[in-house]
Amino acid sequence: MNDLVFFINKGLLSGMIIGSIYAMGAIGVTMIFGILRFAHFAHGDLMTLGAFVTLIIAALLASAGVVLPFPIAFAAIIPAMAVTAVLAIGLDKMFYKPLRNAGARPVVLVMASVGVTLMLQGLIRLFAGVRARDMFIDQPKDIFQIPFPGATRAMILTEPQIVLIGFTVVAVLALHLFLTRSRLGKAMRAVSDNPELARITGINTNHVVWATWIIGGGLACAAGSLLSMDVTLKPDLSFNILLPIFAATIVGGIGQPYGAIAGGFLVGFCETLAVFNWSVLLRPIKDSLWFELPRNMALVPTEYKLMVPFVILIIVLIYRPTGIFRGRVL
Amino acid sequence: MEGNLFERNRRDLTLFAGLALLVAIIFLTQGSVYSLRMLVEAGCYAMIALGLTIQWGYAGLFNVGVMGFIAAGAASSVLITFPTNPDFWNSNGPQLVAMFLVKLAFSAILLWLANVSGRFGVGRRLRGLLIVIAIAVAYLVLSAHMTTMAEQIEENSGWIGGLGLPVLVGWIVAGVVAGVIAWFVGKICLGLRSDYLAIATLGIAQIIKHFLKNADWLTRGTLTVSPLPWPVEMPSGGEFIMARASYLSLVAIAVVIIYLLLERAYNAPWGRMMRAIRDNETAAEAMGKDVTSRRIEIFVLGSVLMGFGGAMLIHFASIYDPSGFLDLNHTFLIWVMVILGGSGNNRGAIFGAIFVYIVWVMSEPITLALFDVIRTYGVAWFDWEPPSDFNSRALQMRVFVIGLTITLVLRFAPRGLLPERQARH
Fold first, then answer.
1. pTM of the model
2. What interface predicted TM-score (ipTM) does this complex get?
């Protein structure tokens, strides 16, 4: 039974955690892809930026003497999301909009976003250095142990992980309601489906673009902050997290927010299950096996974890470029 | 015609004259040994930039994984040219590697059979299932073999060592390996939109680097391999100038040959077709051009040059260290070279490579000096306590500047310093 708990902890729960992070990143990327029609390479650094904004706001609140029954960093996420959304709109105004207006090819926008990612990376490291930081300023993380029937070990969840899972559920529901019920949400879907037709029918494209960046920036900030709370805040997310997020986007189908959520969890679970040592699960029945149980039965060695999203990406591109939810092939 | 020729090339001549002046100043102030090293490296970068300029400038393909192709080329050249490791050849290592190659070949055949099974009346679903089974079996067999192979080789002989072949062979193999990788990537992504290529090349570059860093049995991983042989006399007894000068001439000859070939190709029907595809894909397709295969062609060609240039670069450094391959230095710096110099213009790529590399090398002391001033005045006037990692942070400023240059050039000078000259036929 202990082995099963180990599997739940290391395989299922951590897959769900990292899957939520990927899902939130991928929602932003897929909406930018669908509405602005380019792959946003600066999303990883937007996440780091959001996490730093959260840290700064939390530090300000703490120095102002605010005391809350839960760690201040959680409260700081909401204003940080707003700030990051504004920053994202600012980046769009400064770097992407002029190119769009000049009628540049989408690939030029992709390149500009690479330029933006380097600028963000440089600035963050210039002002914050590369050392790891703790998002909880002098406050310990609560760790919950959930007893599992018939096992001496318990399932372990930390406070930020619970917030993360709750936040993802709320964010997904809110996004669903926004996209299906509100005028702006419907307009966004229309632009994503057919930009020319949407413009002719009088949809204000500017508002749609802003909404895209607000959703993308806000979710990137939340994902970055919660990920850094779960581990530590280090400015090295950028390219390493970009690949799984893009994989999730394409698996889910470009321009499909629900696809992005499914893709995010799929990539997250695949990653953790691929590096999970399966021999742990077989150990209890090792006497009845016909072969000698190897020490390590992970499908992929941990150092090649990055292979997993890449392989998923390749398989999808070969056999179903539209993704599971039938997004578009741009 | 004489004056006309001068008129037409005035911009090129001015810029290259300015570059020559810059190089001369560096020679006078920094000494020949240092300047020669810088020029050799700039020449290698020029080769890589030529590879990128044909991908981006001729065909509009966005490759974010230049670093991966450089690293793959460098590693294969190391394996070809480094002296043999007798321990490996006396152990069971060669058998293991041979077995691995046999299994690899079998897996490839199996996969190919599953892939073409549709032609023999196998249904779509069954074919998909067959492919999945083939991939799974091949992966399990190969990864199991690789694990034991890696363990045994590392235990018995450390690593497999090189083959001890001439350096020029190594460089050519470097190009071939990079080209083969590019072919696979292109085959998968080039039928789709260019963003997919960007994502896939980004991934493949990270994976190649991860693999090279962790594959201790193959390339000693992070333990580094040195000294790598040179195609010319190695510097011995402090005699750097002659050795570096001859290396430089070799690199320069290679760059010039490639440049002339590329110019020829650009003005040939093939180059015209490439530009037609780049400028209007639909029209080119309507004319009966096979857009995807032409793109694969040029993507492979560009990557061959990148692998070749990477091998030249690593042999000159004489030490192979997989952690030394960085996205910043080996992908984005080259992007700046190409778009600043003028994409689609080979002379622009060469100019951009040399100019940007010189600026890049010089920027390190300049940034540090600049931030030293900031620190001095910050401490003196504002009682500011600079962080302990101030210098390493200061160098991050260069990352910012590279990003800023990319965005500014794209917005205000999308054609670069030496714009592409549309040939009129």
1. 0.90
2. 0.87
